[in-house]
């Protein structure tokens, strides 16, 4: 089932800054929501730092960024501080949002099948509609793909 053209599912999640984020929080601006497996692991750190290093470009495109994983708020706070991330990270230990987005499920890691977070990115328009989905993200070059799609969709 394609999520493109559907509203972001209902959710209420805590972020690393002590706030609660809901679909209403996202309304009014383009949002990049990226799901990643675990704080402070090599691929996840690279992805977060790519968004950080392109933060001015993301803001210039009129978008905001949220990372989401099953990690605790405390883990997110440490990760944000260590990497100086300018955007919030959402804690979803119960997979409230990860599961309906298809960002949690069976995946193959090191030749073994396991359940976990599937690295995915969702581009959500100011009305809360999912406009682009990257279901299995390769970290290298991904932020540029997101910026290109954002540029294309904003002009449409």
Walk me through what this model shows.
The protein has 156 residues and is of the alpha+beta class. It has one domain (28-155): Glutaredoxin. Helix content is 30%, strand content 28%. It has a seven-stranded mixed beta sheet. β8 and β9 form a beta hairpin. The longest helix has 14 residues, at 142-155. The radius of gyration is 14 Å and the shape is globular.
The profile of the biggest β sheet is: 7 strands, mixed
Strand order of the largest sheet: 2-1-5-4-3-8-9
* DSSP summary, beta strand count: 9
Structural class: alpha+beta
Proper CATH architecture = 3-Layer(aba) Sandwich
Q: Which helices and strands, and how do they pair?
A:
Blueprint: E1 13-15, E2 20-21, H1 23-26, E3 30-35, H2 42-53, H3 55-60, E4 63-69, H4 73-83, E5 89-91, E6 104-109, E7 112-117, E8 120-124, E9 130-134, H5 142-155
Parallel strand pairs: 3-4, 4-5
Antiparallel strand pairs: 1-2, 1-5, 3-8, 6-7, 8-9
Briefly, what is this?
With 156 residues, the chain is α+β, with helices and mostly antiparallel strands. It has one domain: Glutaredoxin (3-Layer(aba) Sandwich).
Which terms would index this structure?
two-stranded antiparallel sheet; seven-stranded mixed sheet; alpha+beta; 156 residues; Glutaredoxin; single chain; 30% helix
């Amino acid at each position: 089932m394609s999520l493109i053209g559907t509203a972001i599912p209902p959710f209420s999640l805590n972020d690393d800054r002590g706030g609660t984020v809901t679909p209403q929080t996202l309304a009014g601006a383009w949002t990049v929501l990226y799901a990643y497996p675990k704080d402070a692991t090599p691929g996840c750190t690279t992805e977060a730092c790519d968004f950080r290093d392109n933060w001015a470009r993301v803001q210039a495109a009129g978008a905001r960024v949220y990372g989401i994983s099953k990690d605790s708020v405390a883990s997110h706070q440490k990760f944000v501080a260590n990497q100086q991330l300018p955007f919030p990270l959402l804690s979803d230990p119960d997979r409230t949002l990860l599961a309906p987005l298809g960002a949690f499920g069976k995946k193959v890691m090191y030749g073994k099948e396991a359940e976990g977070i599937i690295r995915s990115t969702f581009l959500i328009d100011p009305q809360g509609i999912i406009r682009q989905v990257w279901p299995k993200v390769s970290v290298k070059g991904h932020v540029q793909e997101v910026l290109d799609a954002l540029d294309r969709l904003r002009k449409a």
